[in-house]
Amino acid sequence: MNRVFIPVLTFVGIFFPVIIVAFVFGFARRWRLWTAGRPEKRSENKFTRLMTTLAVGLMNIRILRTTELYAGIMHHFIFSGTFLLFVGKIVRLFSFGGVSMPPQSIFLYASLVSEIGGAMILIGGAMAAYRRFIVKPARLDTKEDDTLVFVWAFVLVLTGFMIKGYRISVSEVPPPDWGLWSPVGYLISRAFLIFNLPVKNEILVWHRVIIHTIPAVVLLGYMWVMRSRLQHIVFSPLNVFFRSLKPKGQLVPIDLEKAENFGTSQIEHFTWKQLLDLDACTRCGRCQDACPANFSGKKLNPKQVIQDLKNHMNTVYPIPLSRKGIDPRPDMISEAVTDEVIWDCTTCRACQQACPVYIEHVDKIVDMRRSLTMERTSLPEAAQEALKSLSARDHPWRGTTATRTQWADGLDVKTMAEDSQVDLLYWVGCTGALDERNMKVSQSIVKILRAANIKFGILGTEEACCGDPARRMGDEYLFQTLAQKNIEIFKNYGVKKILTACPHGYHSFKNEYPQFGGNYEVVHHTQFIAGLLRDGKLKLRGVEGKKTVAYHDSCYLGRYNDIYSEPRDILKAVGANKVELARTGSTAFCCGGGGGHTWMEEPPEKRVNVKRTQDVLDSKADMVATACPYCLIMLEDGLKTKGVEETVSARDLAEIVAGLL
Questions:
Q1: What is the Cα–Cα distance from 426 to 460, expressed in whole angstroms?
Q2: Which of 103, 287, 332, 626 would disulfide-bridge 351, Cβ 3.0–4.6 Å?
Q3: In this structure, are 637 and 602 located in the same domain?
């Protein structure tokens, strides 16, 4: 046996340091690139981070929780199989020196574990090859190194089983035992029985050195030196570990007094974690399929944004381990990504919800918008006009002649200035106060509050925009100005609890105002109404049982704040014949109004709201229920575009409940 193993050990002894050097060099190269970005703290709650990393890496819960059962099982077999194979090989070190007679117990267990792992890799790899080369989903962009990865992995695992088979064939352990502890290796060992011992030894030497060990060295070297996609085996778990634990969708504020750059116009302006995102991307394309802008035919493709930024990073830093980028360099925003792509985003977070490794697309897009808005003044004309209106009139509805209190004419609603001793502040919002259609929603909420004997007040003319449109359109300065103004008003009236019908205002008050010292109990009107119905504080005179109603999940209510059950509880309480849309819950399709798009003009064939309206029509619903003023506007516009506004209606849940009081 020594004649067999000495050449192999010599070869491994020579090339193992090469593998280590290649790994260290490749990792150091990427680490140097990441640390070119700005610092960011991502190390708190290490235990929580570790548990999620294991769950995502080994069990693939981010994929399995979706409808992609095939892909989830496939990845589970590959990653869990790889883990078991490595565990078995590491444990095998404790029985180094060959197969003892009888085999050591630890070797038997290690053998079984590694056999199971190897078999899982082959099964998962076969599933992956079938999916990539036979099914060919449009979102997968198969490249040459993808094919090489499949070939190398297959050769390595198969030849590993052949080595096991050889060792079994030269041992004197009874065959039935090997059939139990090494079933695959035992089957392969039958083929070696036709050779005599000297020939077997020669086969093993050449097999181990040429067919097994050399490909392993070449694969690892290629993986780390040539930036193969296999790097995501290491980078993706790192990315999951360092994922954001802050409230979903909470943007990082700019320190306006100290910042040297207002937004991100160069690759170094991103944080180190945002740059790690670029290397962690697996190019699976799930974000691409989930993106409503991409689905509607716009230029935005979240996967391509990440890949374009990665290519730009490698272009700017072509020299390994160098901290100095090239000069001059291509412009990241206008050339690598383009303005049009950046402004296509509705900030719906569907891409981030779909990503299995927690890549943060929206933050990068908003960071680049900040540069376009505050440094270059390069934004769509309609967006610019909305921001001008926000700055001059505290709301984005340019051209409106309505006042902040016109919607409440005849309702005798008191302002906080008249009486601040209230149970809660009803934040009406810009759209609820100034958009004619949404005024009816505000009136319905007042009717519900009074029916439940809730003492409330409004700010009236003191109310300004919550600032969400400004922040999502990149004007961080305007957002902070509005936020600080509102916080001061809340402080003056001692506001503790805020009720709002706008998910964007809800998200701002609940998750982003605390960044500036504004901490409140924030309740969305669906949560509040569902609670009133549950507690029997609202007496309905009838039920909404004649119409089939489909509920449309608002992105900022659902994906941003995980409010899914309360709106459906309301429909159940009113007796509606409820149906679900094709894309619902956490995978719901955006209405197209977020990220400032409520005020931007788009060609009809590329409007996201028209695509979502088709989902409503496909459900055969008579009515689509909403819980967001933007969604109500966008869906009604979609129904008109489709020419079905006379047969299918859009209503806010508050309107449905108020109509039954």
A1: 10
A2: 287
A3: yes
